[in-house]
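Per your request, structure below.
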């Protein structure tokens, strides 16, 4: 493979540097400059023709307007292929299912697509009609390879000696026209992605983990869409402070009204009313009537009141009034009626026969993960470990893990450790921090 000019420069610099001072070269702009934005069929057709002349995998990236828009649609798609050029496509100019996207999808059929943190970008790519059939995820590959820092910037630094600026990572990509420096930033996300893929692949091959990664990549593509969340309002930030059921009713009514409004306006819900504002209103809802804008202002001022929050004050007050007037039998239950397992501290207190195997499983799985130089959550999902210990299977643990969604390589590694743990009757005393390090299960 022909080396990118900057990679050649870095290779020379690395020879001149001492091992204690690894070279890092700022990646300031693409080697061939920032290409023009593709927003017409003529430009798109020309890009497709150039990409068809290239060889090897396609490097993809997408920019969304997270924090600004309700939708997770792509507002910019970046593509690069060896000898096929670097291209910046404005998907809004074409819309989902456009013939140019259909042609692009046919072009990538049975050719590897490289993405970094693919689960973030695959939904918005699929929305416009791009459906990869072979995937290489540089972020996940780095995790499986055992690298400590797997963001795109850190990977480029550690594996290629290149530093990548991230100053435009949180901008509003729905802005039109897109500024040149934003386009330069976006182009750099795919500029070295093909070369980075080769570095990550070599690490996986050298550590005999390539088959693991390959199985994980295939599983990402085959995964069905996530089912709708049960009671999504319960995930409101700060919800842990809301203890009373009537206060939960206020959270629910405000969240649902905000969500409907945000969806209609295609604006991020938090820009209409923050989660912190919702929980603060809920916990003050029964301390006195909230009947006008001034009452809301008094409650929200300590949070750093935003004028935007009060633009829909009448709607919020209506939600509060309805929730407070709601009969008790319509209040939400304290916990969601889902299959989410209870917190681990409750296991310790109320289900010691399940807690004991769990302590042994977590400890010994962590030891094995460290031996294999792989994060525990990538070796086996902690949620699957909890489910096996909560309800031990009557048959094979390995088959139970596979049925729960584990990869075959994960089940082969974890099942012997879990089988042994299920025989334990006394908990393993481990430091509290280690015991509670896992993320709380989602509701």
């Amino acid at each position: 493979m022909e080396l990118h000019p900057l990679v050649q420069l870095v290779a020379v610099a690395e020879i001149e540097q001492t091992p204690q001072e690894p070279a890092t070269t700022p990646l300031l702009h693409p080697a061939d400059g920032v290409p023009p934005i593709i927003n017409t069929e003529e430009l798109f057709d020309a890009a497709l023709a150039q990409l068809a002349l290239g060889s090897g995998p396609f490097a993809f990236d997408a920019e969304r307007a997270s924090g600004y828009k309700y939708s997770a649609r792509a507002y910019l798609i970046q593509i690069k292929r060896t000898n096929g050029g670097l291209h910046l496509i404005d998907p809004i100019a074409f819309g989902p299912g456009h013939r140019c996207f259909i042609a692009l999808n046919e072009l990538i059929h049975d050719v590897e697509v490289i993405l970094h943190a693919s689960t973030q970008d695959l939904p918005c790519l699929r929305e416009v009609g791009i459906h990869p059939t072979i995937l290489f995820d540089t972020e996940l590959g780095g995790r499986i390879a055992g690298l400590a820092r797997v963001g795109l910037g850190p990977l480029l630094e550690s594996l290629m000696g290149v530093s990548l600026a991230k100053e435009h990572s949180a901008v509003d990509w729905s802005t039109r026209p897109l500024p040149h420096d934003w386009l330069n930033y976006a182009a750099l996300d795919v500029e070295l992605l093909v070369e980075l893929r080769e570095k990550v692949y070599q690490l996986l091959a050298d550590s005999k983990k390539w088959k693991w990664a390959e199985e994980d990549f295939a599983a990402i593509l085959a995964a069905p869409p996530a089912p709708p969340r049960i009671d999504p309002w319960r995930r409101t930030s700060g919800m842990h402070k809301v203890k009373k059921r009537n206060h939960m009713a206020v959270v629910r009514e405000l969240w649902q009204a905000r969500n409907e409004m945000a969806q209609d306006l295609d604006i991020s819900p938090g820009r209409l009313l923050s989660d912190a504002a919702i929980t603060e209103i809920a916990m003050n809802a029964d301390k006195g009537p909230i009947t006008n804008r001034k009452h809301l202002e008094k409650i929200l001022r300590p949070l750093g009141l935003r004028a935007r929050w009060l633009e829909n004050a009448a709607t919020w007050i209506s939600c509060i009034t309805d929730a407070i007037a709601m009969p008790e039998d319509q209040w939400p239950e304290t916990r969601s009626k889902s299959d989410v397992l209870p917190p681990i501290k409750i296991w310790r207190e109320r289900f010691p026969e399940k807690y004991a195997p769990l302590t042994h499983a977590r400890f010994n799985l962590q030891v094995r993960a460290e031996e294999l130089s792989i994060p525990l959550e990538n070796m086996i999902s902690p949620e699957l470990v909890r489910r096996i210990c909560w309800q031990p299977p009557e048959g094979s643990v390995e088959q139970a893990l596979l049925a729960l969604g584990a990869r075959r390589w994960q089940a082969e590694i974890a099942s012997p450790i879990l089988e042994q743990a299920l025989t334990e009757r006394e908990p393993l005393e481990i430091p509290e921090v280690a015991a509670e390090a896992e993320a709380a299960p989602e509701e």
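The chain has a mean pLDDT of 92.

Regards,
D.
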